[in-house]
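thread: overnight batch results

M.L. [08:02]
morning all. the overnight job finished for the chain we discussed friday. pasting input first so we're all looking at the same thing
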Amino acid sequence: MSNPLDELDKSIAELRRAIRDASAAGDSERVSELRAQLRRTERAWDALLETDEPDPEAVPPGLPTATEPTSMTLPAREHVQRALVLLQTPAAPKLIIDVHDAFFPGDLTAAKLSSLRRDEERSYRSAPGARPYYICPALNHDHLAPARALLTISTWSLEQRIVGPLSPRVNFLTGAIRIAEAIRGMRDAGSEPASAAMRLLWRFATNVPDAMPVEASLVVNDVDRVIDAALTELEVHSDTDHTTRRTSARRARRQLNDEQQLFGSQLQQIRLKQAES
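M.L. [08:03]
and the structure it wrote out:
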């Protein structure tokens, strides 16, 4: 299974490369945004490292000290962050819970997620940037308003947090790939994935053309086949979807303040700004 710290390491490296490219191109606006995103991602890395490596002297003798048991005491927002880091796409609460149950220890329920987004927004308003990351809504590409029941992480780029007409399918295919890769990673490390993980992969695979054998099957035996099939369809949609997200992200940087870029803006406010521009 992919490690959230490894994913953040990868994001940090990619952001640094993007900053160099934007600087070489003379795009100062993009450089500024990327640097802010890099700082948020580095803070998230620090926070996750502290969570994964507790002080052993602070744990009473006889209590578990491994990462898995300590994860059970994490707040809901950190459970959500881990599931989203694995998926790397905006996701609905039900999928987040399913991914968490399949790959991570601890208890995450719909009740714990019901007020999470509002709590995160209130926390940001009371002390902007005090947390290394925030759980925030995806933004609709057209009005840049919060997308219904889709959560993201504030350290992601605007492009990654925006959803367009093709994004639901692109995100579904990306999720299938990420889940399959996590299962393959576990097997490569000599660990057998939980049955919940295999059921989750089956649910994705049955909705991806050529990901499953022709004959009816309730088991996914070929993880690589799922990845290849999802990548094949993803190539059809990804360029158009990315163009929509990128165009909307540029508009968001012009029209929205920092808080609105994370939590969206009221539709009426957006329309006023569009009329003025």
